[in-house]
Structures are given as C-alpha cells and as structure tokens.
C-alpha cells in the first residue's frame, strides 16, 4: 500500500487552528459588504456576482498563487485555500471566482516564458480573466481521454471543431483553457496521448467559430456549453508540447481539489452556524429544539466530519506546498469535505423545519450549492476508483 505520509518531510507540520488569521480577517471584511440579500437576488436572476468578483480582484487575492515576478503575491496553496474557505464561511460563493486562482497553474508550469510574461501579470491584476476550463464533453463525461473536440494544425493556426459542456464562467472570462485532441485516438500508443492544451481568447473567438450557450441549473453557477466550428486558434497559444496536454491538466487537478475541499469546509461551517443558531432560538413544546438530541446529534456529527475534512485538506495542502506527492491526499480531502458539507447542509435543512424551504433563510440555497461538490470537479465514484487503484493497489475498474 502506498502511503503519502511517508513522503512528508519532518519540517512539514500540518497546521491546526486558525492559520493565516490576517487573511481570514481581511477576507471576512470584504465579504461583509455582500450580505445574503445580494446572493439571494443573484440566485433568483441566475446572474453573475460581478461586484463581488471585482472586490475580490481588487484585493489581489485571486492572484495569490502567481509568483511575484509575474505580479502575483506568491502565497502558498494553503493561504489560497484559507481565502476560499473564508469566502464561503461568510455566506458568499467562492466558485464564481475560484478558477482565476488555479487555472493559470497550467500556464505557469508548462507555458513558455513568452506566454507567461504576456498573460500572467494581467491575470494577477485581474485585467484578464482566465477562469474558464473546457474539459468535459457531452459524450466523454468522466472519461476525459475519449473527448472528441479536435484541433488540427493548418500552418500557423489550429482549427478547432467540437463541443464542450459545463464550461463554467465562460461568459465572464476573457480566456479559456481548452483541452482538445490533436492526434486521433487510433494513432497514439496510449489514450492519454495526443491531447493538447490551448489558451483560447474568448473575446476574439465568440461568434467567430465559437458559440457559448448558458445552461439553466439547480444552482447559480454560470455554466455553459460551448460549440466550436472551425475556430482558429493561433499555434502560439498552444501550451507546452503538442500531445502532452492530458498530463498538464492532471498536474493542475491536485491544487483544484485541495482548494475545493476548503471551499466545502467553508460552506459546511456556514451551514452549521445557521443550524446551531436556529436550534438555539427556535422554541417548540416549550423548549429550544436544540435541546433534543435528535436535533443536536446531526449538527454535532457534521461538525466532527468537517473538522476531519479540514485536517485532511490541510495535510493535502502541506504536501502540495512542500512539493511532495499529494494526489491521494488531495482526492481524499475533496471526497471527505464534499460529504461533510453535505452532512452539514442536511442537518441545517432538517433543523430549520419548514422554514428551511423559505428563500429568505438562505439555507435552501446553500444546501443546493453544497450538492455540487460530490459531482464536480470530479465525482465521488471517480475518486473512490482512484483510491482503490492507486492507493490500495486494487485492479483498475474502468
Ligand atoms: C455545475 C457544474 C459545473 C461544472 N464546471 C465544469 C467546468 O468548468 N469545466 C469542465 O470541464 N467541467 C465542468 N463540470 C463537469 C463535471 O466535472 C462533470 O459533470 C463530472 O466530472 C462528471 O462527469 P459527467 O457529468 O459526464 O458524468 P458521467 O461521467 O456521465 O458519470 C455519471 C455518474 O456515473 C459515475 N461513473 C462514471 N463512470 C464510472 C466508473 N467507471 N465507476 C464508477 N462510477 C462511474 C460517475 O461517478 C457519476 O456519478 C461541471 C459540472 C457541473 C454540474
């Protein structure tokens, strides 16, 4: 059995308690300007939280992971996780902007110096938004290597044809990171070969070979489907080497999972706080409902599970920041955090009784939002398949 813990250097400690307190306080103070009424209104209109994202951008937090030489603040991943956790724990929704933090990782790790100098400073300042990530397709789903969007080289351009689905924030992004097949499946030795990553300039491409259509969803996630018809992408927008894009994308997924795990913890804490407050104040049969163990125990269990998930997310971030193998920890953190959040969401809903269904309490909105984490950016089963195969050494199941 492989054990990532054995890779943790002695000097890497898994922090406990309220780490990065100044960042937490500063994020809380930004979020205080965006109360529940702001989010409720956006949810009803399926609108994008532009002013909130603008405020977060101005604070510089979305450039947290970009090195200082490219205009970012070069913070560790754990600090970025804390930022997103606090956003959600304040009742705001980090997913509107979280991708601006981590999608650039592929460019940072695998782009040319010229590409990095051209894009990263503007991404760090927020002048350019790179927060759309086109991987999932209607027919391939979780089986990424079977995706069908093709990018064929014609001189200095790649012609892109195909379709993506669930490309979130594409209508609120200047650039999109696109994964497309550049060599047909039957010409490559392994399915994961022959896929390439491109930076697509959405401003130039829209209605010029690319069309974006919003998808109506259970939650306000600004997600879309994207159609490509002979879209011309300049060859200079290819990131890294042609055919190696799958590996580049995988590289970025650990960071995404760790950050999403912390978002889950943040949402879970908000939901729990709401549940506990209501349990203490709502009186039925002449006493607070929170006096009943049937109300207390689900809240207490959710708290315990959130604490455990938080510890796992911290460990995964510590491994990542120490540049140690962290795929198992990142996946497990995301799995546990998504379930702990859901437990908290269910407990908050049940505690609120009928009032849980009233929009003005905001619990139903956060409950809906908490459900996504078990499906995206990777579904629970696919994490379990990863753990089975890569951690436990069981046969590959797919
Ligand atoms: C709101 C939202 C936002 C999203 N944003 C983005 C985005 O910005 N960019 C992007 O590229 N994608 C995005 N996604 C897509 C998301 O990553 C996928 O929905 C997710 O990976 C699952 O893929 P699928 O929906 O095709 O499900 P499928 O792959 O069809 O799977 C359906 C179910 O079957 C299970 N399953 C499939 N194969 C196996 C197996 N071998 N063993 C066990 N169980 C299996 C899955 O776990 C799942 O429960 C988003 C999705 C949503 C809903």
What does this structure look like?
- With about 400 residues, the protein is of the alpha+beta class.
- The protein is about 45% helix and about 15% strand.
- It has 13 helices and ten strands.
- The protein has a four-stranded mixed sheet with strand order 1-4-5-8. The protein has a four-stranded antiparallel sheet with strand order 2-3-7-6, with no helix packed on it. A two-stranded antiparallel sheet has the order 9-10.
- Strand 2 and strand 3 form a beta hairpin.
- The longest helix is centred in the middle third of the chain and has 37 residues, at about 245-280.
- The protein is globular and about 80 Å long.
- The model is unreliable at about 5-15 (pLDDT under 50).
- It binds flavin-adenine dinucleotide.
- The site of flavin-adenine dinucleotide has 23 residues, from strand 1, strand 3 and helix 13.
- The site of flavin-adenine dinucleotide (FAD) has 23 residues, from strand 1, strand 3 and helix 13.
């Amino acid at each position: 059995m492989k054990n990532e813990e054995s890779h943790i250097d002695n000097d890497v400690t898994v922090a406990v308690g309220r780490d990065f307190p100044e960042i937490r306080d500063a994020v809380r103070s930004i979020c205080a300007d965006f109360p529940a009424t702001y989010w409720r209104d956006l949810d009803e209109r399926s609108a994008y939280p532009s002013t909130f994202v603008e405020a977060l951008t101005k604070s510089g937090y979305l450039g947290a992971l970009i090195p200082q030489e490219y205009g970012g603040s070069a913070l560790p991943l754990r600090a970025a996780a804390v930022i997103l956790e606090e956003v959600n724990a304040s009742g705001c929704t980090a997913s509107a902007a979280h991708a601006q933090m981590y999608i650039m990782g592929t460019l940072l790790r695998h782009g040319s110096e010229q590409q990095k100098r051209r894009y990263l400073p503007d991404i760090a300042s927020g002048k350019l938004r790179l927060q759309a990530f086109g991987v999932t397709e209607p027919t391939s789903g979780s089986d990424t290597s079977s995706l069908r969007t093709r990018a064929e080289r014609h001189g200095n351009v790649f012609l892109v044809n195909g379709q993506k689905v669930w490309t979130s924030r594409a209508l609120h992004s200047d650039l999109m990171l696109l994964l497309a097949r550049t060599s047909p499946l039957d010409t490559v030795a392994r399915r994961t070969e022959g896929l390439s990553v491109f930076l697509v300039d959405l401003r130039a491409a829209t209605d010029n070979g690319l069309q974006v259509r919003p998808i109506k969803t259970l939650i306000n996630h600004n997600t879309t489907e994207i159609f490509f018809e002979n879209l011309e992408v300049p060859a200079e927008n290819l990131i890294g080497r042609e055919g190696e894009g799958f590996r580049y994308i995988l590289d970025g997924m650990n960071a995404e999972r760790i950050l999403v795990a912390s978002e889950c913890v943040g949402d879970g804490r908000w939901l729990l706080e709401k549940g506990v407050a209501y349990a203490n104040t709502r009186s039925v049969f002449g006493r607070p409902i929170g006096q009943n163990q049937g109300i207390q125990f689900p809240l207490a269990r959710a708290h315990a599970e959130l604490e455990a998930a938080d510890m796992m997310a911290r460990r995964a971030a510590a491994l990542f920041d120490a540049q140690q193998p962290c795929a198992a920890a990142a996946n497990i953190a995301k799995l546990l955090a998504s379930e702990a959040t859901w437990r908290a969401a269910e407990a908050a809903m049940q505690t609120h009784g009928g009032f849980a269904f009233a929009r003005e309490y905001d619990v139903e909105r956060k409950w809906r939002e908490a459900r996504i984490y078990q499906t995206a950016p990777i579904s629970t089963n696919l994490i379990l398949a990863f753990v089975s195969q890569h951690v436990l050494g069981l046969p590959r199941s797919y």
